[in-house]
Amino acid sequence: MSNKDKLSRMQWLNRHKVIGSANWNSAQIQIARLHSKVANIRKDTLHKLTTRLAKNHGIVVIEDLNVSGMLANHKLALSIQDMEFYEFRRQLTYKCEFYGTKLVIADRWYPSSKTCSQYGTVKPQLPLKERTFECGCGLSINRDLNAAINLSHCVALVTTS
């Protein structure tokens, strides 16, 4: 059972308890402990990931994302909030500086997932549900892999100028 399910179950069981009673207080403490446990797991994972990226790579490229716009998609909003993009970028920035890693932040409007990584042609529309990038040149590649390749080209442009 995931922590999300445990939390939901604990809150569901707590809904009919008399507020202020001993049972209600013990349930509140259990719920608070679970919230704390989840928060600590997230913090630990985020610190380990950013440290690993900053220590083991000479150049790290991230995209400047419109998170508030992404939160408008209610199907993805909870997952996006769980990712803590701002905290990830903040930690990665100071850790890259500490370990001497170059951090490149790609422009928000750079069409990394809509650009063909072989020939550079840009597709005008690419819906989020379409997970495979298919170009007229015959290239068929995973959308995220295509974006990663294009961002590596972005690094080459930054380092040469």
Short description:
The protein has helices at residues 3-14, 22-56, 67-70, 77-83, 85-99, 143-160, and strands at 59-63, 102-106, 132-134, 140-142. The protein has 161 residues and is mainly alpha-helical.
How are the elements arranged and paired?
Blueprint: H1 3-14, H2 22-56, E1 59-63, H3 67-70, H4 77-83, H5 85-99, E2 102-106, E3 132-134, E4 140-142, H6 143-160
Parallel strand pairs: 1-2
Antiparallel strand pairs: 3-4
| Strand content range | 5-15%
Low-confidence stretches: none
Shape, per Cα inertia axes: elongated
SS content category:
mainly alpha
Elements, N to C (H/E): HHEHHHEEEH
Strands in their spatial order, largest beta sheet? 1-2
> How would a crystallographer describe the biggest sheet?
2 strands, parallel
Structure commentary:
- This protein is mainly alpha-helical and 161 residues long.
- The chain contains six helices and four strands; from the N terminus they run ααβαααβββα.
- It has helices at 3-14, 22-56, 67-70, 77-83, 85-99, 143-160, and strands at residues 59-63, 102-106, 132-134, 140-142.
- A two-stranded parallel ribbon has the order 1-2. It has a two-stranded antiparallel sheet with strand order 3-4.
- It is elongated, with a radius of gyration of 21 Å.
- The mean pLDDT is 87.
Looking at this protein, list some descriptive labels.
about 160 residues; mainly alpha; 2 domains; two-stranded parallel ribbon; two-stranded antiparallel ribbon; about 55% helix; elongated
